[in-house]
Design goal:
Shape: globular
Radius of gyration: 28 Å
CATH class of the largest domain: Alpha Beta
Distance between the termini: 38 Å
CATH architecture of the largest domain: 3-Layer(aba) Sandwich
Bound molecules: calcium ion
Number of helices: 22
Strand content: 5-15%
CATH topology of the largest domain: Alkaline Phosphatase, subunit A
Number of domains: 4
CATH superfamily of the largest domain: Alkaline Phosphatase, subunit A
Structural class: alpha/beta
Largest sheet: 10 strands, mixed
Number of strands: 21
Oligomer: single chain
Strand order of the largest sheet: 7-6-5-4-8-1-9-10-2-11
């Protein structure tokens, strides 16, 4: 309801471009709340951030702001789309590539007349889309003398320090390329303070001679929580490298205390003069450390404490440059007279461990890496000094920006516009009961897969590999040192949190059937995928069939029927034997639709979800739903013929048959009377008693020639009708 009213108030047609505010989105990488003084953490006095604090003082600070998946790429994809990782397809940093063909907020803002630009870190593998201007770092980018990918192709190297250069590029764009007749959105995205925490040369001696306070859990023993905590490889004690992280030169002298890989590529990029300044700062301290360890003066935990100091100082030095550059951008907006009509937001793709639990890095659903900073200034709208504890998440940013621009928020967006919170028209308690979090468990740093929900008081986490639940009472144990999942006093709380967990997974269509999955280790599958991507890229297809072995069989037993059905049409067969909904989702977001924009999709999928592990019908149906939504999003003008999952098992009481029937009962409602059309073909194959004859499907699953002929005939008229 609120959304409808606001959409009306902000309707693009009612507002001239001058009245639609500009958006400056300043974004950093791995910025922990504990290193922003406005959040009041333990480092606020030793390492204040006056410019970030200025945004908070002149606007709002959100104290319960969280990511949906605590790694770089996934958080960025969630921000662009307003959708959780499994829906936008960017699940982890290892196997993912952002499917840029999907709808994103920059594309929609661009369409609504905004000028759109992004400079700095992108980190989504595929090129940015939806931007009038972009100049981004390749992959992680470099701290010193960085290269930038150019919109027109190629790279350009800039001398200097990356945080300064990203800000220069942002201000340059505002100064020289912005169209004063249009509102704009500018995403200014920093590499800092990402590992390996390389400071600007003007900051290399900052904090020298000062002891930064250690977090109380620096020597955490990981007891009383999931046993997977002890398996991670992100600890300051064990997993800091000699060269890259700790900035020593030469051979690793203490193999039991430091890892040896990789070398410090940042050092290698510097000019001789830069190296000199860098060495002058680090080398005397390095030599002092080596001497102290060799003489036995420094040992055991004291070495970990030394490493913590080296790490935290470099991290805070990086933050110092971020803060200075935020100040520069704010000053530019003031001086150019744009501050009044510009929303400024500061955030970071996720938080980070600054030694808490003995860690650096992120990934876990624990507070330090789950949290994202969120500071927002909007003169005349946000009351200065506002502090808000509503549970907000990165999936909320896209709908917020859309509403600012008066653009209708697509129904498939999972986040909620924050405007009612920014305007203070909705109370924090009325906002959202809990947030959902998911981490896939990629190999890097060996953090186990887990997901969970957090409300204002409690957090429940589930670890599927070890089938463990953890429960934290954040009021009594804000540092999350002991799970109370098996404490009888929390029995009811745990039950309630499990109910909440199940309901949020349902709300976000989250299950095994909806998390995109590939089978690239199977050679035939990888090769077929590659061939289909190439076939898709040729373009010009009128009709595309999507499914599993039953669809693939049109290339075998169904060849004659296929020929008749697709006669005179350019048809593409995207059927893969053994695929379930999750593999189809992965394929469609990894190239098999690129170049494809047909008149008609024919979709039948789900029987392998049933066959492999008897997935509940509701979950498989959610997989089908996400496939349909994806096709609607990528090809909004195409028709979709959604087929019932074929009957399987000879007899009607076959349990797998019943599961497929259950899927059909749900997915038939995906028909929308416009572009999605339901066709139930069960009756075509079954006899009057519901028996599936062996003559039609000898294995009670796959049609043979006769079966394909019956199938093709049964859908021929619908195919003809929908392709007119
Ligand atoms: Ca990050």
């Amino acid at each position: 309801m609120t959304r409808v009213i606001l959409a009306f108030l902000f309707s693009a047609s009612l507002l001239s471009s001058a009245e639609r505010p500009n958006i400056v989105f300043i974004f950093s990488d791995d910025h922990a709340l504990n290193s922003i003084s406005a959040y009041g953490g333990p480092l606020k006095d030793v390492a204040p951030t006056p410019n970030l604090d200025r945004i908070a003082a002149e606007g709002a600070i959100f104290t319960n702001s969280f990511c949906s998946n605590s790694i770089c790429g996934p958080s960025r994809a969630a921000i662009l789309t307003g959708k959780h990782s499994h829906v936008n397809g960017y699940v982890d940093n290892n196997n993912s590539r952002f499917d840029g063909s999907q709808t994103t907020f920059p594309k929609l803002l661009q369409k609504a007349g905004y000028q759109t630009a992004i400079v700095g870190k992108w980190h989504l593998v595929s090129d940015p889309q939806g931007f009038d201007h972009w100049e981004v770092l390749p992959g992680q980018g470099s701290y010193y003398n960085p290269d930038f990918l150019q919109q027109e192709g190629g790279r350009k190297r800039y001398d200097g320090y990356v945080t300064d250069i990203v800000t220069d590029l942002a201000i340059d764009w505002l100064e020289k390329e912005r169209d004063p007749d249009k509102p704009f959105v500018l995403m200014c995205q920093h590499k800092a303070p990402h590992r390996n925490w390389s400071p600007a040369l003007r900051h290399v001696t900052l904090f020298d001679g000062i002891d930064i306070p250690e977090p109380a859990s620096l020597f955490d023993d990981y007891s009383k929580r999931s046993k997977t905590l002890g398996e991670q490889a992100m600890s300051i004690a064990k997993d800091m490298s000699w060269n890259n992280d700790m900035k020593f030169h030469g051979e690793n002298l203490f193999l039991e205390k430091f890892t040896s890989e990789p070398d410090n590529g940042e050092y290698a990029r510097m000019s001789e003069e830069q190296k000199k300044a860098w060495d002058a700062a680090y080398e005397p301290l390095n030599q002092e450390f080596i001497k102290a360890v060799e003489s036995g003066k420094l040992k055991g935990d004291a070495i970990t404490s030394w490493k913590y100091q080296r790490y935290i100082k470099d991290y805070l030095r990086c933050i110092k440059a971020v803060d200075e550059n935020v100040g520069r951008l704010l000053d530019y907006l003031d001086e150019s007279g744009q501050a009044e009509n510009t929303i400024v937001i500061y955030s970071s793709d996720q938080g980070f461990y600054l030694g808490e639990h003995g860690w650096y890095d992120k990934r876990w659903m624990f507070e330090e890496s789950l949290a994202m900073p969120f500071l927002a200034r909007w003169p005349g709208v946000i009351k200065p000094g506002m502090r808000n504890d509503a549970l907000i998440q990165n999936i909320d940013y896209a709908p917020t920006f859309l509403e600012v621009a008066g653009v209708e928020v697509p129904a498939t967006v999972q986040g909620k516009s924050l405007i009612p919170l920014l305007k203070n028209t909705v109370k924090s308690e009325e906002w959202r009961e809990a947030i959902y979090y998911f981490y896939s468990g990629e190999e890097t740093h060996q953090v186990a897969a887990h997901d969970g929900v957090r409300n204002k008081r409690y957090k429940v986490m589930y670890f599927p590999d070890t089938e463990e639940w953890n429960l934290f009472d954040l009021l009594k144990d804000p540092s999350e040192m002991a799970s109370v999942h098996d404490d009888p006093e929390y029995k009811e709380v745990l039950e309630d949190m499990k109910v909440l967990y199940a309901s949020l997974r349902k709300e976000y269509h989250m299950s095994e059937a909806t998390v995109p999955a590939e089978r690239l280790k199977q050679k035939w599958w990888a090769e077929r995928h590659k061939a289909k991507v190439a076939e898709a890229a040729e373009g010009g297809h009128d009709i595309v069939f999507i499914g599993d072995s039953i669809t693939q069989g049109f290339e075998g037993a169904g060849k004659a029927a296929w020929k008749e059905l697709t006669d005179g049409k350019n048809a593409l067969n995207l059927g893969f034997s053994g695929d379930r909904t999750q593999e189809v989702l992965w394929r469609l977001m990894n190239g098999e639709l690129e170049g494809v924009d047909p008149k008609l999709f024919v979709l039948m999928i789900g029987t392998n979800n049933t066959g492999h592990n008897q997935t509940a019908p509701g979950e498989t149906a959610d997989g089908v739903r996400l496939i349909v939504e994806l096709l609607r999003d990528r090809s909004p003008d195409a028709e979709i013929l959604l087929l019932s999952v074929f009957p399987r098992g000879e007899m009607p009481e076959n349990p797998l048959r019943k599961i497929n029937d259950g899927i059909n009962t749900i997915i038939k409602d995906l028909a929308d009377g416009e572009h999605v059309h339901w066709l139930d073909l069960s009756g075509v194959f079954l006899d009057v008693k519901g028996v599936l004859p062996k003559s039609v499907m000898p294995d009670s699953l796959h049609p043979k020639e006769e079966g394909y002929r019956m199938w093709a005939e049964a859908m021929a008229s619908e195919v003809e009708r929908l392709m007119k």
